[in-house]
Write a structure and sequence with these properties.
homotetramer; alpha+beta; 8-stranded mixed sheet; 5 helices; 8 strands; 19% strand
């Protein structure tokens, strides 16, 4: 497959992921952003400010490994959060950032981290094969200074390289996977678990 | 584009907005009403009593700047709330009034105002560029006397010209934007935030 | 329009109402039943045991004013609740019985009646023109003896002829209107209000 | 009908059931598994790891009564839970295992069993004809050792042969019926009732 074809296929997958994620209410308004890494290291990412439920191929652009635009258009404001993850996880082929109500709500209740335990669905996360796993999802404070936020996330991962996702407070979560399909499975599983946690704790933080 | 064409395009946008809003449960039964301003100052607005999830072009009519019918049909009972907003905000091109469950619920708990803070999604509101903004959404008592209600809203805005929306208690909310797309982005973002607020406060008012 | 044509049209309306109501989760499994009265007094009603989200014309049958089958098939077990309403309300042209989660939940918390007040959406009920109306929805105990239940409902209405709906505890609600469209508007408005009431009262009955 | 045709028909029913169940959020990610018994005793079951909202005929395979693959592919990891049910209930023609949020949530609150009483919708369960029935749904601890879990479930049923479903803690529930349609009716009714129970008990376990 040519890189041109590869770009088109990844773009089609991101468009479909956006439709799926928006239909469930997890990227309201123009929130969220999505990307996929091509085999030559370049990254296909959503253009800034587009509605994720109704993306067209023209809404997906290319940036280099450092997040610089390769076609003159402006990529998502949070591009650096994507490229930092690709550098940290060589096997990552896609990064999805939904802006889900449940992740947002949890971040209002739990500072520092959300812990997921004793759920069969944890097995939907790559490499986990039993519900008796303790998955920690760190919660970082929101910051409009994206380089600073990216640095904070990256420093955390320096000593916690076994995470599957992180939440930005009042903002949503980031997750990734080998392919767009894998990352989307993570989105679906994590959103399910985050929603359960909000219902489990109700209006009362621990 | 002729004014005739402009009317048809705005009507098509309002019809599509209605389908989007109803599918999410935010305009049950025949509640809610929508409008868009044409470049000649006339206002395209939904006819009284129609179901907003299934509008046809025939369900959108024209009124003048004062809200008087220009074609003999009866516009929405709340037309004056629309025209007051257009007069107050010269840049407003569309006004949407969903009858959302979360806005209705919040108005039962919070008299006076709902405060939205520390949400990334506030950036979906026109002109806001950081989550560290404090957005106040005033809550007005419901009133079947629409001229009186419109006056009350307008007097409030005399001293608060920085608002993006207001709630009418037990009734839903009004929001606006430069275009139907902008107003719809406001609807989607505000409904998301109102829903979070209801889940955050649960059954216990502050 | 011939009575034959009238039957077909009413059946089509009930089929569409079923699709609408099921898509929202208000007639799970094979619960619920729907009917419409023809101009000759006969009643088109759903056959017993069909799934309401996927009705075909063959799933709508005819009964007489007393609820007796006119074609040998077995009508809904609750046919008598429909015919009692048609006798009581001469202007009623359709009766819809969704099995909604919110009505069921409210009936677990509130014995006797559910009161709806100060909601703009009350105006979706036929003849109500202000939110300052107090609408009482009686809650009857569930009973597998339908003639006995029908009698109990009818006796209540003898002294309360201004009601728009009633709930059967743990079972769902009945509402009616001049046409299928009117009855469906009542379903949509009442379900919205019942849902708000469950969220308003949360896990704590008054 | 040939066994070949029978397989195709059952597979089509399972595919449609998967679409229905996933659309409602009851089999997130690649969770859940479904099966149907053919008249020759063989069992059509979902292949391990497929997304249940988008199954194709190729995702349904055949196992024998003991759960051994008949075509070399790997069936669902929980195949033994299906075959144990078919052995225990000779009249069962289909087994569905959704991974529903409400069942998962209830299992966090109630150890041992969930009791459903005084719901009209209990009549959607095969053979129940009154709401005054007390239906016990046992809750078993989750276990990655499927033979051990299957044995535990089977031993329980030795003395409780009147159950319609069971929950695995943090994992979802199993239900069955004479046909895929019957099992799906059970899924829809049970999920409705489980959801009501979570709303009824809110964040406070008894």
């Amino acid at each position: 497959m040519s890189v041109e074809q590869e770009f088109k296929q990844r773009a089609a997958e991101l468009i479909e992921a956006g439709r799926f994620i928006h239909a469930r209410g997890w990227v309201p308004a123009t929130s969220g952003n999505f990307s996929a890494r091509l085999s030559d290291g370049r990254i296909a990412i959503t253009v800034s400010g587009r509605h994720k439920g109704d993306l067209r191929q023209d809404d997906i652009m290319l940036v280099d490994e450092a997040g610089h635009s390769l076609d003159g258009r402006r990529p998502s404001a949070e591009t650096l959060l994507h490229t930092t993850l690709y550098r940290r996880f060589p096997q990552a082929g896609a990064v999805l950032h939904p802006h889900s109500p449940s992740a947002t709500l949890l971040s209002k209740w739990f500072a520092g981290e959300v812990v997921l335990e004793d759920y069969e669905l944890l097995k939907a996360l790559e490499g986990i094969d039993t519900h008796t796993t303790r998955v920690v999802v760190p919660v970082f404070g929101n910051d409009q200074n994206i380089p600073r936020l990216a640095l904070q996330v990256d420093e955390y991962m320096e000593s916690h390289n076994d995470i599957f996702a992180y939440i930005i407070a009042g903002h949503g979560f980031y997750t990734w996977g080998s392919t767009v399909t894998d990352a989307l499975r993570h989105v679906e599983a994590l959103e399910f678990l985050f929603d359960l946690e909000t219902r489990l704790h109700g209006a009362k933080p621990r």
